[in-house]
Amino acid sequence: MPVPATILVGVQWGDEGKGRVADWLAIQADVVGRYAGGDNAGHTVQLGEQSFKLHLIPSGILQHHVICVLGHGMVINPERLLAEIGNLAAQGIDTSPERLLVSERAHIITPGHIALDSAHETALGDQSIGTTKRGIGPAYTDKIKRTGIQAGLMRSPEAFGERIRQHIENVNASLPTAASALDADTITAEYTAHAEALAPYVTNTVPPIHTALRSGKQLLCEGAQGTLLDIDMGHYPYVTSSSASVGGALTGLGFGPSEVERVVGVAKAFSTRVGSGPMPTELHDEVGDRLRGTGDNPWDEFGTTTGRPRRCGWLDGVVLRYAAQVNGLTELVLTKLDVLSGFETINVAVAYEIDGVQTEDLPGNEAEMARAVPVYETLPGWKEDIMHVRDWHDLPPAAQNYVNFIASLVHIPITYLSVGPERNQIIVL
Ligand code: IMP
After folding, report:
1. DSSP codes of every residue in 223-274
2. Which one of 167, 183, 199 terminates a domain?
């Protein structure tokens, strides 16, 4: 009996490079499903001169043989989805309803949710979460409160429009007076039109996924954000509102753990975080600036969705070990190893000191995590540019040593290294 599902999860705070890894793994996949989050995510895949920026559609769309699913764990902004479909089509990618399925159970993000997200962040002041202001939290709030709007209603555009109108009127009644009321008529008309355009894409995605699984086809589940942003696994409230780690793949696409063969974690060779919340290895010096890059390249450490500079620091082995445990990782992919070239020495956090006590365990609460001081192991760096390297044996010994050290920290094999933004800048181990 084949076990054809692979789940791809980010093991840090998102932005690990899952998009380019998904693009790579999708070569062997038949169906690629995105299971959580919304257009807060930003995945960049560089193919030659072309840079593809994806927010909702799985990166698998760039492999022409693949069927893509937007799963019911997602929250979908119809306007953004249509824009993304249009942009990809303009870049020569087939985005027809035959290869892009949107779950009827997914929930819809509206301008009302976006307004509420902003209002909530403003009200929090210096305690704000630093959300992407894409309406993610309010859309999931409506879903859990059972007042949300499911994508399936878009198959009846008029009824969908009326539901949107009611919702916008409700939002207007609850917005703080300082926020300007939304124009329910305009939004209703726009969203009715969006529903007409998207209706052919909306379907019950469970049967096609299981037909594929039963016929031995390969399902790749593409995560968004990362384990430390997961609503349950991260440091609440500095998290996103969805299940970004392994469990979200099962509920967000609708299949069971017995189908899963591989759980592939993606880690960047150093740490980054956007938004507020604890990050023990964050660097506020020239090393942090160097890891971030200047922003001149699309792969520098500036948010794909918001353009915000990312907080940067050394790799956090405590985070990696935790993510390996809670996701049951079978393997790890390490991205952006090339960015570490040229450092004299490289630090990796192997434990934390919290209130004078050393621990290798990740704290379960935000306050303790905020007091965690990293305990570093210092490894030798390497001078050579490694972006052209395609074979493990051609890596400088210090780079091999760094990779081996990380594998021994997490007790799982590292199977791929990325050494540049291009599709082929990958070393298979
Ligand atoms: P939200 O998902 O927009 O509600 O934001 C909640 C937190 O998750 C904020 O700290 C965001 O910066 C962070 N976040 C959400 N999506 C991503 C992502 O794709 N990459 C990195 N951080 C993200």
Report:
1. P-S-GGGSTTTS-TTSS-SS--SHHHHHHHHT--GGGEEEEEEEEESSEEE-
2. 199
Ligand 1 neighbourhood includes 240 CB (under 6 angstroms): yes
Contact 181, 112 (CB under 8 A): no
CA 184 to chain centre: 32
Domain of residue 274, CATH code: 3.90.170.10
Coil, strand or helix: which one is 368? helix
Q: What is the mean pLDDT of residues 203-215?
A: 96
Residues 408, 290 share a domain: yes
Helix axes 397-410, 317-327, angle to 10 degrees: 50
Helices 136-145 and 111-124: crossing angle, nearest 10°?
A: 110
**185 belongs to the catalytic site:** no
Q: What is the rounded average pLDDT for all residues in the chain?
A: 95
Give the model confidence (pLDDT) of 304-329 as tens digits. Answer: 778 889 999 999 999 999 999 999 99
Q: What is the pLDDT of residues 96-154, one digit of tens each?
A: 999 999 999 999 999 999 999 999 999 999 999 999 999 999 999 999 999 999 999 99
- Ligand 1 atom at shortest distance from the alpha carbon of 136: 4
Same domain, 405 and 306: yes
pTM of the model: 0.96
Rounded distance between C-alpha atoms, residue 197 and residue 157, angstroms: 9
Is 15 designated active site?
yes
